[in-house]
Design brief:
- The complex is a heterodimer of chains A (218) and B (470).
- Chain A has 218 residues and is an alpha+beta fold.
- Chain A folds into two domains: 65 residues, Dna Ligase, domain 1, CATH 3.30.1490; 114 residues, D-amino Acid Aminotransferase, Chain A, domain 1, CATH 3.30.470.20.
- In chain A, strands 5, 6, 7, 8, 9 and 10 form a six-stranded antiparallel sheet that branches.
- In chain A, strand 8 and strand 9 form a beta hairpin.
- Chain A is globular, with a radius of gyration of 17 Å.
- The mean pLDDT of chain A is 95.
- With 470 residues, chain B is α/β, with parallel strands linked by helices.
- Chain B folds into three domains: 132 residues, NAD(P)-binding Rossmann-like Domain (Rossmann fold, 3-Layer(aba) Sandwich); 165 residues, Succinyl-CoA synthetase domains (Rossmann fold, 3-Layer(aba) Sandwich); 162 residues, Rossmann fold, CATH 3.40.50.261.
- Chain B has a seven-stranded mixed sheet with strand order 9-8-11-10-12-13-14, with helices on both faces. In chain B, strands 15, 16, 17, 18, 19 and 20 form a six-stranded parallel sheet that branches.
- In chain B, helix 5 packs across helix 10, helix 6 runs parallel beside helix 7 and helix 11 packs parallel to helix 16.
- The two termini of chain B are 36 Å apart.
- Classes of the chains: A alpha+beta (218), B alpha/beta (470).
Chain lengths: 218, 470
């Protein structure tokens, strides 16, 4: 698959869902949790995924799924029940089940948008559901060099956490590389691109992992 | 043709035609004529009926102008101005400055007139500055088309700053203000409505101009944003580029549903982009003048360690607070002196003075103590920048201190920034500092901020080096 197949193959044109976003991320060698998609009309039987699991509603029309009960975390048994419950809460929506990533440490956000004067821009900062409260984010234009991505990270208030603050092992270089990849991705989307959030991005077992993502295409 | 060749008739015209020359002192065409008269040898006032204006013979029709005129300046109302532009273009005049207003800035019919100017530009290839432009001011030759007060006498000494402004009044008011304490201007360019020549053209021109060492812009909108940034980055490798970007636009997303879209806010993208492309940002007319003056005149420091010398304890403390204060532009730190420096300072100063940073030389100081202290801290390898707070109210301090500080500052390869406050004489002293090559400010805050511009510039130059490492 390449990016053009990906754009053409979207379920709803211009509105990728989380599963499709993660397919896109993997095209750019970005780590995502191991997962499976259950179509709304599929009968869920069993999964080979390792517990504990996460169950999420996977629908591009639902943007803030946490707020409306569309995310269930840390499920180690009765997965069938949780899935059927989610299905009845969101009839007609697909369901995503994933292996839970037991990360510790803070969450980041990587984003992109199109600025009317300067074109595609990238953002990085303190992520998670409180990202708009922290407002600890920095912008650059895409594409971006690794050196520039590192400088951008060093401007953040939370920058020290990437440089060993209180024994933190988070790797600044590989996070910078991830920003460069998002820049490439945005560049490849070209005229189709409008907005993207990769949030949260967490550090687990030596890798940065994108736990969720959304994008709006033109 | 390259931009240096192309803009030569604008800055160094062999001959100038003034369309709208007038004997009426209330008219713009009168004020401009009076100024041009002093510096332009081949000046051709054009007026439809007058035979003579300010003692110069008048040409009644543009068609009757001699051939090969370098530059035309047009001051008449918008509709006839467009007709005049067409005639000038047909005549083969290379560059036209359209001072006239009543174009895109008023909308409607004015915008249509602007479209007409664009058509003429395309058809004849004549370059145009404006409309609604104040034109240019070049202290080097005295060429000046600005019809409002702009500190032109005070700025006539010239300098290294090219000041390019989209708004005429912001430009002239800023310069008026800056000229009080001295400001070294290479050129002033009023862009106006930018039907043809834009900030990018002048960026390129002054980047190549060997007499320019700093580029300052006031911009509300930047045409071809990405191209401008790329050229600015190239320019910034050699000269500081400072922009006062006003008119903060929304991210312009149709539906801002992403966190990124919301966090982009008014102009976070501009901030990031400027940093990425080696551009320093200013937020008001005073800051752009302070930044460009400092970057044009002062040496770029190797680090961010600041030494402070003050004859008034309170000012030293205030200065220290500003230095250590968190700032989004760049970090500064108070320098720690070596033992050798502390010993030196003890010998120079009176027993009750402080030999630590900030150095309080007390109100018992004289010129010699000031200068010896300055020498001692400049010598310290742990000091990158010196801020010298001068007080001419002190009994033993004389007016010669200005010259002495200047001489000492030039002995070392480090920036020395001064501060002076002396009631109504403040600007007199700051101007004297300027005239002897030293940058000074009238507030502690602005003095420390100037140090930040320099360290930020050093950081930009460092990042240009880093980009090749990965």
């Amino acid at each position: 698959m390449n990016i053009n197949n990906w754009i053409d193959g979207l379920n709803i044109s211009g509105k990728p869902d989380e599963w499709e976003m993660k397919e896109l991320f993997r095209l750019y060698n970005i780590f995502t949790p191991k997962g499976e998609l259950i179509k709304y009309d599929d009968q869920f039987k069993d999964t080979n995924l390792q517990n504990p699991l996460v169950v999420k509603v996977c629908d591009p029309e639902i943007l803030h799924k946490t707020d409306i009960g569309g995310v269930k975390l840390n499920i180690s048994d009765n997965i069938e029940f949780v899935v059927s419950e989610m299905k009845s809460m969101f009839p007609g929506s697909n369901i995503l089940i994933e292996e839970m990533v037991p990360y510790s440490g803070i969450e980041f956000i990587i984003g992109a948008l199109v600025d009317p004067d300067f074109g595609s821009a990238l953002m990085v900062g303190a992520g998670g559901i409180l990202t708009e409260l922290y407002k600890d984010v920095k912008f650059r234009l895409a594409p971006i060099s690794k050196a520039e991505a590192i400088r951008m990270l060093k401007e953040l208030t939370v920058a020290d956490i990437l440089q060993g603050y209180r024994g933190s092992q988070m790797n600044i270089t590989s996070l910078a590389e991830l920003i460069v990849s998002v820049g490439d991705l945005v560049n490849d989307l070209g005229q189709n691109f409008s907005q993207l959030d990769m949030n949260p991005v967490v550090f687990y077992e030596g890798n940065w992992v994108a736990l969720d993502g959304m994008a709006i295409l033109k | 043709m390259n931009i240096t060749e192309e803009l030569k008739p604008l800055f160094y015209p062999d001959s100038v035609a003034l369309i709208g020359a007038s004997g009426n002192p209330a008219k713009v065409g009168n004020r401009i004529l009076k100024v041009l008269q002093k510096t332009v040898k081949n000046l051709y006032p054009v007026h439809p009926v007058d035979k003579e204006v300010l003692g110069l013979p008048v040409i009644n029709r543009i068609e009757d102008l001699p051939d090969n005129i370098s530059l035309a300046v047009i001051t008449i109302a918008a509709t006839p101005a467009v007709k005049a532009v067409r005639l000038c273009a047909e005549k083969g005049i290379k560059i036209i400055v359209i001072v006239s207003g009543g174009f895109g800035e008023v909308g409607g019919e004015g915008s249509d007139l602007e479209d007409e100017l664009r058509e003429i530009q395309k058809k004849y290839g004549t370059r145009m500055l404006g409309p609604n432009s104040l034109g240019i001011f070049l202290p080097e030759t005295g060429l000046d088309t600005i019809f409002v007060e702009h500190g032109d006498k005070a700025l006539s000494g010239g300098g290294g700053i090219a000041f390019i402004t989209q708004s005429g009044s912001v430009g002239t008011e800023a310069l008026g203000l800056a000229s009080n304490a001295g400001y070294g201007m290479r050129a002033f360019v009023g862009l106006g409505n930018k039907v043809d020549l834009t900030e990018t053209d002048f960026l390129e021109y002054f980047a190549k101009d060997s007499a320019t060492n700093c580029l300052a812009f006031y911009s509300e909108s930047i045409d071809d944003g990405k191209i401008f940034l790329e050229r600015a980055k190239e320019a910034s490798k050699k000269k500081a580029v400072v922009i006062l970007k006003a008119g903060r636009t929304e991210a312009g997303q149709t539906a801002v549903s992403s966190h990124t879209g919301k966090l982009a806010g008014s102009d976070n993208v501009v901030n990031g982009a400027f940093r990425q492309y080696g551009i320093q940002r200013a937020y008001d007319e005073e800051e752009i003048c302070d930044a460009s003056k400092s970057l044009s005149m002062l040496k770029i420091p190797k680090g961010n360690k600041v030494a402070v010398i003050s004859a008034a304890g309170g000012y030293g403390v205030m200065c220290t607070d500003y230095i250590e204060q968190k700032d989004s532009r760049i970090k500064l730190h108070l320098a720690e002196f070596s033992n050798e420096t502390s010993e030196r300072l003890k010998k120079i100063n009176l027993p009750f003075a402080s030999s630590k940073n900030p150095v309080d030389i007390t109100a018992s100081a004289d010129d010699e103590i000031y200068v010896d202290t300055l020498d001692a801290v400049l010598r310290d390898s742990g000091v990158d920048i010196v801020i010298c707070l001068t007080f001419f109210t002190i009994p033993a301090v004389t007016k010669d201190l200005v010259k002495k500080i200047s001489e000492k500052a030039f002995e070392y390869d480090k920036p020395v920034i001064t501060f002076a406050q002396y009631g109504p004489f403040t600007y007199k002293y700051l101007k004297e500092f300027y005239d002897s090559g030293v940058v000074g400010f009238s507030s502690v805050y602005r003095t420390v901020r100037a140090a930040r511009f320099l360290v930020e510039r050093a950081d930009i130059l460092k990042t240009f080096g880093e980009d090749n490492e990965y």
